[in-house]
Each structure stands twice: as structure tokens, then as C-alpha cells.
Design goal:
single chain, alpha+beta, 2 domains, four-stranded antiparallel β-sheet, elongated
């Protein structure tokens, strides 16, 4: 495959754009030609520096025009249907805007790349395309972020299931689990998360609705040692009861599957404030004192 810098005809090309274009060239060469041409035109007009990266993303994200789409549809060598082509163009167009400043030097696994193209071509819903764009950008930045199993899981999600999971992520701690009380998944209904929705996500392969447990371990903690997480915040939890024999405190949780954990990390979620307030009140009632560890989120 030719050197990306030779294709663009410039000395400096952003590493993230270079790697992204390599992904496109290797995964769908016919589709990559108009993408390459547009990126080349943009690269000639701007100096690629860390400071210019945001501007570059803003310019590159609009590379797909109606003329280009018409050319793709009428290309006799195109092996994919017009709709598949249009979906992939739309998703990759969005993905460029999510590319981070720095990316790993590790190439994307060829099997992953092939699977992504096969699955992404069937995604026409605008909101689901955003999800697939974030998945692509994250995997290009750091290969191994999303498993093949997660691609399969996400490809089978309906728009409704994706919306429910987005809501669920507003209750997730450490991108891994949801804390509940009273041995009941129905505990979350007071915050607008209905139990049957959790069952839907379990069937979709994102969540295990069965309650599990982990223990907060008390004792002498080292500086900045974490023994409790709520949302994206890390804490040191201390026992302030008069029970000298209490060494642990049980937390009831529902665990996200590996696919659920991977997907939740790219969704924009904020811990539900009413849920957080209730959890903190329950811990206080049970004589648990929390000290937040700063700069650890």
C-alpha cells in the first residue's frame, strides 16, 4: 500500500487522520478514493499541527458531497449496494469528528476491520450511526477497545434498546455496574428506570439483571487508595459505626456485560443526581463516611 503522506502530497499529516485513512484504504478501497481525494485537498490547505487539529477535524468532517455520493452510486466497480455505501460514508464522516489528538501506533486488527464494514453498512438510523462512528474512532485510536462480540451485540440493537441503555449508563459506576438496594432491581424505578427495560437489555446482551455483591473493605487505607466508586468519582469509604467487628460492607449491584462496559464508555452519561443523592444518604445512614479522591476520574 502506498505511503499516506505520498498520497496526500504533503510533508506532515496528522497521525490520527493518517491512521484513519489507512483503515479506509485497507477496508473499502473503492469507497476510500473519494475520501482520500477530499482529505488530500484539505491537507494541502492547512498546516497539520497539534494546534490545528480541531480545525482540521471541522473541515474534514464535511467532505462527503452529493456529487461524491452520486459518483459512488454509479461506480460500476462498487461491490456494495448504494445504501450500504451511503451508510458507511455517513458513519465515517461522523467518525472523523470523534478522532482524538493522539492515537496508538498499533494497527486495527484486519478481522475487526472486516467485521466493522460488514455491520456498519446496514446501519441507516442517524442516532445509531453516531454510535458506530464513536466505535470506529475509538478503535482506530486504541485497537482492542471494542471486541468482535461487542460489534455483533451492537449490530443487533434497536434504536429503542440503545436509548434505554443510554439511560442506564446514567446509573453506572466505573463503567461496570449499577448499585441497588433492598435486593431488588425495582429499586431503580423511582428514578425512571423500569425493570422490564433492564430485562430487555439483558436479552440484548448488555446487562446481567441478577443481583450480585461486592464488599467495601475497611481498614487502614493508603493515601489515595480507592475502596468505593460512585459514577466516575472515586472515594475512600470509612466505617464510623461503633461496631468494631465490621470489616466490610456489602454492596448490591447489577453488572454490565463486557459488551455493555465497552459501549457505556463511549456514551455521554452523567450520574443521575437524585440517584446519587439517595445512594449517599443510604451510606450515611449505614454509618459509612466517604472522602472523595481528587483528580482521579
Amino acid at each position: 500500500m502506498p505511503d499516506i503522506k505520498d498520497i496526500f502530497g504533503v510533508e506532515a499529516v496528522s497521525r490520527s487522520i493518517e491512521k484513519f485513512t489507512t483503515f479506509m484504504l485497507e477496508g473499502f478501497s473503492t469507497l476510500a478514493l473519494p475520501i482520500k481525494a477530499r482529505l488530500k485537498a484539505k491537507a494541502k490547505r492547512i498546516e497539520i499541527t497539534e494546534g490545528a487539529k480541531t480545525e482540521q477535524q471541522r473541515q474534514v468532517i464535511e467532505f462527503t458531497t452529493e456529487k461524491r455520493m452520486k459518483q459512488l452510486r454509479n461506480n460500476p466497480t462498487l461491490l456494495h449496494s448504494p445504501m450500504v455505501t451511503e451508510n458507511i460514508v455517513s458513519i465515517t464522516n461522523k467518525a472523523i469528528g470523534y478522532l482524538p489528538e493522539k492515537v496508538s501506533d498499533t494497527p486495527v486488527d484486519p478481522d475487526w476491520r472486516t467485521r466493522w464494514f460488514r455491520k456498519a453498512g446496514d446501519i441507516s438510523n442517524e442516532e445509531m450511526q453516531e454510535v458506530w462512528a464513536k466505535i470506529l474512532a475509538s478503535e482506530v485510536a486504541e485497537p482492542g477497545t471494542f471486541s468482535l462480540r461487542t460489534l455483533e451485540t451492537v449490530s443487533n440493537l434497536s434504536k429503542h434498546e440503545a436509548e434505554v441503555f443510554q439511560k442506564v449508563c446514567n446509573f453506572v459506576s466505573n463503567s461496570m455496574w449499577i448499585q441497588v438496594y433492598n435486593d431488588s432491581q425495582h429499586y431503580l424505578e423511582k428514578f425512571g428506570l423500569i425493570y422490564y427495560e433492564l430485562l430487555e437489555l439483558e436479552e440484548a446482551g448488555l446487562l446481567r439483571s441478577q443481583i450480585s455483591y461486592f464488599q467495601i473493605k475497611f481498614g487502614q487505607l493508603k493515601k489515595d487508595e480507592v475502596n468505593y466508586t460512585l459514577g466516575t468519582k472515586f472515594y475512600q469509604a470509612f466505617d464510623i459505626s461503633n461496631d468494631s467487628k465490621r470489616e466490610t460492607y456489602p454492596i448490591q449491584i447489577m453488572i454490565l456485560t463486557k459488551s455493555g462496559q465497552e459501549l457505556c464508555q463511549i456514551l455521554e452519561a452523567n450520574l443521575n443526581p437524585d440517584y446519587k443523592k439517595t445512594i449517599l444518604e443510604v451510606l450515611k445512614e449505614d454509618d459509612i463516611e466517604l472522602t472523595e479522591i481528587p483528580n482521579n476520574q
